[in-house]
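Onboarding guide, step 5: your first structure request.
Type a short instruction followed by the sequence, for example:

Predict the 3D structure of this protein.
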Amino acid sequence: MKNIRKYINILLAAAMTAGFASCENVDYPDRFRPTSGVPTIFGVRYVDTGVAIEQAFMEETVCILGENLRSVHEIFFNDQKAILNTSYITDNTLLVSVPKTMAEVETDQIYFITSAKDTVTHAFRVLPPAPRVQEMSFEYAAPGEWVSIYGNYFYEKAGSEIKVEFAGAEVPHSDIQIASLTEMKVKVPAGAQPGRVKVTTGSGIAQSGFWYNDNRGLLFDFDGTNGLYTANKGWHGADLVEGGVSGNCLKLYGENFTADGGDWHDAKCHFEYWAGNWQDPEDYGTWDGRRLCDIVDFSNFKNMCIKFEIRIPADKPWTGCPMQIIFSDVTLVSNGNAGVKDIYGNTLAGCNNTYFNNADVSLPRYLWRPWAATGSYDTNNEWVTVTFPFSSFTYYWDGNAATGTLTPESFANLELFFAGGKSGDEGTPCTPEFYIDNIRAVPVR
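The system replies with structure tokens like these:
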């Protein structure tokens, strides 16, 4: 038996050796074979149209035309290396994608490098994609004030200067400072009107999703001009003070802001707006006491967000306890007696402090914790705009995922207060001050 196994093993080894030898001898006619020498470059064209080009956007695929292109071992666009795929290289054509990283040193050249380190160059310009405009640091800045605009691909070259336009006014080029590819500072021009901000570069034009001086969807301006004035539609009366973005603003403040997942802070650091005016049946009145969903259309709330301006002094920083941002419907809480019907047939829940931490309801809300990343958060006593998409309203009182759902009718009431979060993850004690203005609900884009 041992002799038979030994004989079989010898046969198998011989067969495998023969197989390897035969594989080595097989000729693959389509196999890539690099060549020696240097390439000759005729030009560059689009892959799909065949149109000759002298520039392309990052990540765009182009076709190099020439001779002896199989001698190319590496390609650099400016100082950024491209990825070569030998499956797309022949003697006369080479397909390659322009690198997606911005060059540190722009020479407007493609460098073709052989295995012998010989280099051939070809003039070619790499363009970033069209600009993207995502955020403005302070959307209610007055003309003459400097703001930061955030996005991507903010750049300019000689003969192709960046241009920034507000509705009704263009920013003088001297009032534009490009800080990086993703940030620029601009001075709001005289005559700027509510509307989108437009940015133009050599690569294209982009408009912001946000509006400057946004006058849409205003819920609370605390002046009674375009939005509600009240700071007391519930059990707690927050303060209205002067010095807002324009006129009055809401002031929230308190001591020993910590939370263990069960405590909350009341009095002057709790803003409540519960719809209703203690009527039977409840008709919500014509101004104060209205349901917020009667002021703003929330039928497409999944593509909307809440925004407001906030100012936190540097000497009163926020270091612990999340802000709970909660919308609710009148069947969960209302400003009036429980059991009363409204003119729409809803049975009102009345005033209560149980709906927001009722596990059976598990009402989705946003927990804002900007101090979590660095341990402390303030705005250096400057006004800034903050944005919270309703698609991010996924938390329950304790920081875990909520199991309840929101509907357009859920946006009748609003509360801002400090509580909850996960035990052991509440930050450090603090005595912060918050100044809030222009609470609004607007489309995300």
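Each response can be followed by summary notes, for example: Confidence is low (pLDDT under 50) at residues 1-28.
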